[in-house]
Design goal:
The protein has 341 residues and is of the alpha/beta class. The protein has 16 helices and 9 strands. It is 47% helix and 12% strand. α15 packs antiparallel against α16.
């Protein structure tokens, strides 16, 4: 019986890189009895995953009628005689906690002779939240990190319109167990075979010795530098600053010039998140010079401090006076932000 394998992310687990790889190797996959269908892929927009299927399923406003949904998919794969039909979109994550959305999909797949398996990559919840938070800053997100973390601890997920990030693997498993005739496989992003999601996926599929047309080592959507993320945070929160974007960018980068910094989640918050969502906390991580408390960097206090310092830097005061005042305020901020207790 062929399998319909639905790769659901999660967000920030190498999903886009994997989709690019699969899309570039469609012919090789076909020769191995694996179909990576065209239905639901917004290829005209430079995307290589089945996002339109996920958007249709999740009632997402990004859905495009001309790209195709599950009717087009099942028409494309009807009569398939190979091993696996593979779908991939991190936006399937938006429906992982809604089993009713999947019931019809699974039933229709079964009517065509397919078994159905969900594949979900999970990762340490605090590292996952850091990556998701920094990524969301690119799309106008401006909430404080501490508030976001509190929401995740209380609910196990983070929502924005139809978009959702899930941080509780147990809740995902419980939800998908309610979809009749399906199975679920988890993979651990912290223990990837070969050190990448692409290599790990190939190992999962038994494809680790295949010669591919496209390389396996592509990396997509790396983290922005801290100063870039901080500029986005400030602009997203303060409309008056957004009107002077280039000046704000130059000011923030000047404060980070020559400094090596790393964002860390405070140990107590890490412990609470991991115990609540993973059932146990990992070993404490030793602090190092240059560590910055992510909950303090992306906070109301940081917004106020940088806005006031920016105003001083662009005031009519004598240059030396402005420089001294800004330096004093920024020294205070660095000392405060470096408190990771």
């Amino acid at each position: 019986m062929p399998e319909l394998l639905i790769h659901c992310g999660l967000h920030k687990t190498g999903t886009t890189a994997l989709q690019n790889f699969l899309f570039a190797n469609v012919e090789v996959l076909a020769g191995l009895g694996i179909s990576y269908p065209r239905a639901g892929i917004p290829a005209a927009y430079g995307l290589t995953g089945h996002h339109n299927l996920a958007w249709w399923l999740g009632r997402d406003r990004r859905y495009m009628s001309d790209v195709g949904e599950f009717d087009a998919l099942f028409k494309e794969i009807d009569g398939f005689t190979g091993r696996t039909v593979l779908l991939s979109s991190e936006d399937f994550e938006n429906s992982l906690l809604h089993p009713a959305r999947w019931t019809g999909v699974a039933a229709r797949a079964a009517s065509l002779g397919f078994s159905v398996r969900f594949l979900v990559y999970t990762r340490n919840v605090t590292d996952h939240l850091e990556s998701v938070f920094l990524q969301k800053l690119r799309s106008g997100f401006g909430d404080e990190f501490s508030q976001v973390a509190r929401t995740v601890v209380e609910t196990g997920n983070l929502r924005s319109k139809e978009w959702q990030a899930c941080f509780d693997a147990r809740a995902i498993a419980k939800s998908l167990a309610q979809v009749p005739g399906t199975e679920l496989s988890f993979r651990d992003y912290e223990s990837l075979v070969g050190g990448s999601t692409i290599a790990d996926f190939c190992a999962f599929m038994g494809l680790d010795h295949v010669t591919w047309q496209a390389p396996m080592d592509a990396r997509v959507n790396p983290r922005n530098p801290i100063e870039t993320s901080l500029v986005l945070f400030l602009l997203n929160r303060d409309g008056t600053l957004s009107q002077r974007q280039s000046e704000v960018d130059a000011f923030v980068r000047a404060q980070f010039a020559g400094k090596a910094a790393r964002l860390v989640t405070p140990p107590r918050l890490r412990q609470v998140m991991e115990e609540r969502l993973m059932g146990k906390a990992s070993a404490p991580r030793a602090s190092a010079a240059g560590d910055l408390n992510i909950a303090r960097v992306f906070s109301f206090e940081t917004q106020v401090m940088f806005r006031e310092s920016f105003a001083i830097a662009h005031s009519d005061a004598p240059p030396q006076q402005r420089s001294r005042q800004v330096a004093a305020r920024m020294a205070q901020w660095w000392a405060w932000a470096a408190d990771t207790a």
